[in-house]
Amino acid sequence: MSPNALIPSHRKPRRSASSRALRAGVTGGFLTLAVAGATVPANAADKPVAETQELPTITTALTADLAESADATQQVAESYERQAAQDKALSSAAKAAKKDKAKAEAEQKAAEAKKKAAEAKKKAAEAEQVRASRSADRTSLTGGDSSGSGSDASTPSTGATGSTATLLSFLRAQVGKAYISGSTGPSAYDCSGLTQTAFRQIGIELPRVSQSQSTAGTQVGLGNLQVGDILYWGSAGSAYHVGVYVGNGNFIGAQNSSTGVVERPLSYDQPTGAVRVL
Asked: What are phi and psi of 159, to 5 degrees?
């Protein structure tokens, strides 16, 4: 037996490699685990660091994509807004143009209607002059009575008495007044308005319009007229004009806007028929 066999050794026991690695890892700030005394490869400890360094790159790219997408969305929205504004402006312009066109057409039609009315008035005046001229010629040839009426036609109208005289006096007082459609006096009349107002002076109420006045009394022939008979133009029941026979082959009537209320011979405008209400 060796003399040193029972003397305890003062050397520290040897530490395993795994213990040294563990201690070194703790000292360096890293915790390295050893399983069954095996050390972790260096590349395994570096891997989490590499993966951690990749995150900022991914995040930056994603942010750029989102920003680009937002810009694209904003551009599309602005494009839609511009298009909507353009469409609204075009619509407003189209409506304004349509309105202006309608106004221009209305003004043109009004001008044309005014021109036609003036031409019609001019033609009516010319026709009136022609009829007056022909009437004067006929009167001079026939001695002043071309009516073909009965014995009363040759009797001076001044010989009328009573209600007939009142009627004639009123009618002659209206000669020269204006013709206005729908008027019944006292300053202007239309044809049926004059006859209605005249007969009202002697207590006879006539219908308002020519059509009704042409059937208001007894039908008489134009060859058998008496003072106060109502003359009509057109057919009975649908006459378009009326006047009053005043004797001597003449009548008084509100003719038209050019002549107003006049006294004319029957030849001036030969009536169609007559009715007697007196």
From this structure: -85, -5
Whether residue 135 contacts residue 265, with contact meaning beta carbons closer than 8 Å, is answered with yes
Question: How long is the chain?
Answer: 278
Contact 232, 242 (CB under 8 A): yes
| 18 within 8 A of 37, measured Cβ to Cβ | yes
In the chain, domain spans: 144-276
Q: How far apart are CA 1 and CA 278, in angstroms?
A: 188
Q: What angle do CA 243, 245, 246 make, to 5 degrees?
A: 125
Closest CA to 125 of 231, 264, 260: 260
Whether this prediction's pTM lies above 0.70 is answered by: no
Position 235, amino acid: S
pLDDT tens-place string over residues 152-192: 333 333 455 689 999 999 999 999 999 999 999 999 999 99
- Give the residue ranges of DSSP H helices in the chain: 17-27, 42-142, 162-174, 191-200, 210-213
CATH code for the domain defined by 144-276: 3.90.1720.10
CB contact at 8 A, 253 and 241: yes
- For residues 130 and 59, give the distance between their C-alpha atoms in angstroms, rounded to a whole number: 106
With CA atoms as reference, report the closest residue to 254 among 246, 244, 267. Answer: 244
